[in-house]
Description:
Distance between the termini: 38 Å
Radius of gyration: 19 Å
Mean pLDDT: 93
Largest sheet: 8 strands, mixed
Number of domains: 2
Low-confidence stretches: 7-14
CATH class of the largest domain: Alpha Beta
Structural class: alpha/beta
Shape: globular
Helix content: 40-55%
CATH architecture of the largest domain: Alpha-Beta Barrel
Amino acid sequence: MPRRSPFTALCMNLQAALHPVVADLHAHTTASDGDFTPSGLVALAKQARLTALAVTDHDTLAGYPEAQATGVTLGVRVVPGVECTAVWAGRELHVLGLFVDPDDAEFAAHLAAVGVQRRARFLALVEALKGQGVTFTPGLVEGLADRVPSLGRRHVAGLLVNTGVAATYNEAFGLYLREVLPAVPPTHFTELPEVTRRIHAAGGVAVLAHPPFRFDVPEFAELQTQGLDGLEAGHPSQLSGRAAALRGIAGSLGMVVSAGSDFHATSPTRGVGTHGLSREPWAALCGRAVHS
Length: 292
């Protein structure tokens, strides 16, 4: 059924009315590549009338303390989370570590090491672009590198936009980054079993973020043997049919279900709370976290 058909919209609105989102479990802040501060993100969750919000920055928990403090003030439960970059069978996967202990020293050391690798790649991408004749506004690169704990490709795209080299992020990726990314391969990927082991050691639940469209029961069953606990079945990239299928697969395998907006910036389709869990699956996920 077409995503934008009137009947599809009606069904989605009815579903939302019957099962309102209470927990958005995938969102980013300025600690990685989000546009809002941790406090600003929690304020958006309050406006969306959410019960809970997971701050899941890329390979860092740096935004959690501020978000948690704001959550206490505003009455929003802030779940400590992180979106870990993993590799499995030569493929990049992202794993949400939800309910991790933000004070776990071993996990913090791992994330710090990944952050160093992310920074090195960020600077290498900048140098590669300079080699192609791009001139950045003086001080812009250094200021960003000093301010952001977890740097990534979106930050480089932002530099191109802020410098005036590209008009939009899409243009930055399509006309500039696409050319240099193959020459600067990522070094911050961790093998999937190691990622899930570290998440579990920190008391968390390991959920596959935005599962690849071509993955089905055999792939998810194999990933489960690698320590994966659940699937993100509710994401802006998924049609309602795919989300329903993922919920069914998760149920058949005894996996938990998560969902979230993957919020980075103001957007009509990725606003905080536009995707997430309703009350019953949220309670089930909390129960799994207690017993993980």
